[in-house]
Structure prediction request, 316 residues.
Amino acid sequence: MATRALIAAELQELLEPDPLPGVGVTWVPAGSATPAGSYAALVPLLSRVVGRAELAGLPRLRIVANCAVGIDNIDLDACAARGVFVTNTPDVLTDATADLTLALLLAVARRFKEGQALLEQGAWGGWDPRQLLGLELKGATLGIVGAGRIGQAVGRRAHAFGMRLCYTSRKPKPTFELETGALRLPLNEVLERSDVVTLHVPSFPTTHHLIGTPQLAGMRRGALLINTARGDVVDEAAVVSALQSGHLGGVGLDVFAREPHVPDVLVRHPRAVVLPHLGSATVRTRRAMAALAVRNVRAYLDGEPLVSPVVMPARG
Ligand code: DGY
Prediction:
């Protein structure tokens, strides 16, 4: 019987025609249930949950090649227990995500949304030296929570704008420190010192609501919060209250706790710039993510080392 694979239908136009020669591909649209059957490989989007129920319907599944760097949609323990390999798409989306983080940072710091609203409402009365004064990046402090690949790429960009950097990380990042002068500090000190805090940790049980009411209270009054990581890293309700009370001066959010739901209060708040999870949304990056996910499947099927493994059970 020919090997069979399930691939997210939305990836088809980003991939080469016939991306897995010799493999029978079923294209699965987002929003439809994961088909059960004798499939060896699954290439899901980050919106598809792959848990025990889905695995139970896929008895011959050997690899889940997530088309995302985040793997919070996948039950890694269940995959490991079933001997299913899991891969993700690191590196290829670092620059696109870091660019979008800087775009949000600038948009919030320089109050784009309020400026655009003035024009949309026909309420702009002309240049006024007091109008919509924002935060100048040069000399301001950026706190990077999670200085992995994306956090460091954001830091390098912010350094080029003249920002001072501090960061949290389980391990020191000496090269990053040398390049940018960044200072590694505990989370509470990063929050206390920063004019802008940007989040770049993955969604794990240990990072769930990492930024909640006490952490927000520990930030400077008027500081800005940017999140392009995962929505559940912040307590969304606490962020809304801190914004409404004026303790947070603004937020730039690309990710939300219950996507695609975005709290209306954030969509409408003048100091909240919200985007529909666009971090990696460039043509080059989305093509590279799709290609990398499929390359992992090909490598598995050919008995080659996986390109970007996350879960590595013994090969059966
Ligand atoms: C990922 O790959 O996890 C990103 O959130 C997609 O933009």
Summary: The first strand starts at residue 4 and ends at 8.
